[in-house]
Specification:
Blueprint: H1 3-11, H2 16-46, H3 53-70, H4 93-114, H5 116-124, H6 133-141, H7 143-149, H8 151-161, H9 163-172, H10 175-184, H11 192-201, H12 204-219, H13 222-232, H14 237-249, H15 273-276, H16 279-292, H17 303-306, H18 313-343, H19 354-379, H20 381-399, H21 408-436, H22 441-454, H23 458-469, H24 474-496
């Protein structure tokens, strides 16, 4: 209880409850006014009337500030303090931190391979491929499929075959999509189905996430798992690395300049570099894992014993939350370059360069992930997840008001806010898993991350469909916001509600 409320209770004990009731009523009124303002702004923007948008935005921001200032007068049970943490022994700290460092680099490489198909489609037409807009969106969305489904077995193998052997093997497998994609995009005559198959094969890189998180979960004690898993999530920087690096390397031949019979260089676009670039780094990371880490000394578990996680209610509740938070990160990283190119092509002063802006969204989400894990360790994962999901809902509704060619600055700012919120949520959701499912954490990580990655498959296709049939992505973003509100209610009920048996 604050000093102000304590002094007031002693001076006027009969008036304290009346004041608190009044504060809560004012907060409810502020919330209702914010929802009304956002609804009005959305309706007006969808009808092409933008005069009310900015007044509504600033009014909503002022109301938000007023509501935040009033929170200090609420009863203390509604304001969670820092949590008491039960300390566990940490005998192999040096090895654990070294494993974490190697894992971050290896996971970044895996994400770079996984997301190379977010940058490749932008330049396929320049390389001579004749593909429709919907075909390009399919190429960006397809890698998510195999990467999603394989996360379940990739999460199980850690406890069955050992952390070092499992992680080394799945890292070496990254060679397959790099070699296949490199040769496929060299020839403009390559059939579309071959390109689609190569994009699907690239999905195995996304499955490495489950193995990586399972390894780190084994090495760190409970009081540090949120922070360690969040730091490991810095591997998501691979998305930014891919989107910054690929445009630089496709302008020259990594194997030397080829020329035709007249001596003129055959072509100036080498899209195959986007795939061949990663091959030496894959070999280096596999060697680092094999020689720099060890298998965790745990009793091997059978696959059947770990599949019990599929029967747990919390596995599916957490999958729903991660479907939103991680799915948003994947969708933004994969589809944002095409969205920028299609929606803001006629922006005043020239169209924004998609591969210049898109990597920053993934970078913000990646940086926010370890912060989300640390905050979850300190203040509770349920609270941080509620803040994350609520911000994503607000951002989703706001995006619909920034889809005119001259509104790119507002659009990109909201995208960055949504990505930061999704990063916080990614870190906090993974803190919840070992808390509510301690015995099946490895298998649960595989299932949750599988469905979370699938959350990145649906939005690019939905965005492409709404742009083709409804003239823009507004309704797709509104759908995301409504889904975020559902996830907010679910998280509050299971993990944020103070009386919940799984409050965390």
């Amino acid at each position: 209880m604050s000093t102000f409320r304590e002094a007031q209770r002693q001076a006027h004990p009969t008036k304290t409850n009346t004041l608190l009731l009044g504060v809560m009523c004012v907060l409810i009124l502020i919330l209702c006014m914010q929802v009304w303002l956002l609804t009005v702004a959305l309706n007006e923007s969808l009808d092409g009337h933008n005069a009310v948008k900015w007044p509504a935005f600033w009014s909503s921001l002022a109301l938000f500030g007023a509501g935040a200032a009033l929170l200090r007068y609420l009863p203390s049970p509604l304001r969670l303090p820092a949590r008491e943490i039960e300390r566990e022994a940490f005998p192999h700290a040096a090895l654990a931190w070294r494993t974490l460092g190697i894992s971050v680099v290896s996971l970044a490489l895996a994400f770079a391979v996984w997301f190379m198909w977010s940058a490749i489609p932008i330049r396929l037409k320049d390389a001579g491929f004749n593909l429709s807009r919907q075909q390009l969106f399919w190429l960006t969305a397809t890698p998510v499929l195999l990467g999603s489904f394989l996360r379940i077995p990739y999460g199980l193998i850690v406890s069955t075959f050992g952390s070092r052997r499992s992680y080394t093997f799945v890292t070496l497998l990254l060679l397959l999509p790099c070699i296949a994609t490199g040769f496929a995009v060299k020839n403009p005559a390559t059939p579309y189905w071959v390109l689609l198959a190569c994009a699907a094969l690239t999905g195995i890189a996304g499955a490495n996430f489950a193995t990586s998180m399972g390894v780190i979960n084994l090495w760190f004690p409970k009081q540090s798992q949120g922070t360690a898993l969040g730091i490991n999530g810095l591997g998501n920087f691979g998305v930014t690395i891919a989107q910054f690096t690929i445009p630089l390397v496709i302008g020259f031949s990594l194997l030397g300049v080829s020329a035709d019979s007249t001596g003129i260089p055959a072509r100036s676009i080498h899209v195959e570099n986007a795939a061949f670039l990663w091959i030496p780094f894959i070999l280096l990371c596999a060697a680092a894992i094999w020689f720099g880490t060890k298998d965790h000394a745990t009793q091997p578990k059978t696959l059947a014993s770990q599949l019990v996680a599929g029967k747990r209610l919390h596995t599916w509740v957490l999958s729903l939350l991660y479907f939103l938070t991680f799915g948003c990160f994947v969708a933004m990283g994969a589809s944002l370059p095409l969205i920028i190119k299609e929606v803001f092509a006629s922006a005043p002063g020239g169209a924004p360069k998609p591969l210049l802006y898109a990597p920053w969204a993934a970078a913000i989400a990646t940086l926010a992930r370890p912060l989300g894990g640390w905050l979850a360790d300190k203040f509770g994962a349920g609270l941080i997840t509620s803040i994350s999901v609520g911000t994503m809902a607000l951002g989703g509704f706001s995006l619909s008001g920034f889809l005119q060619p001259d509104q790119f600055a507002g659009f990109f700012t909201v995208i960055l806010i949504i990505c930061a919120a999704s990063g916080l949520g990614n870190g906090s959701v993974f803190k919840i898993i070992p808390h509510v499912l301690p015995k099946e954490a490895g298998a649960a990580i595989g299932i949750v991350s599988c469905l979370g990655a699938l959350g990145g498959f649906v939005p690019p296709l939905l965005l492409g469909w709404t742009m083709d049939h409804l003239g823009g992505p507004a309704w797709a973003y509104t759908g995301m916001a409504l889904f975020a509100l559902l996830c907010l209610a679910v998280n509050i009920w299971f993990y944020h509600r103070r009386n919940s048996p799984t409050n965390c």
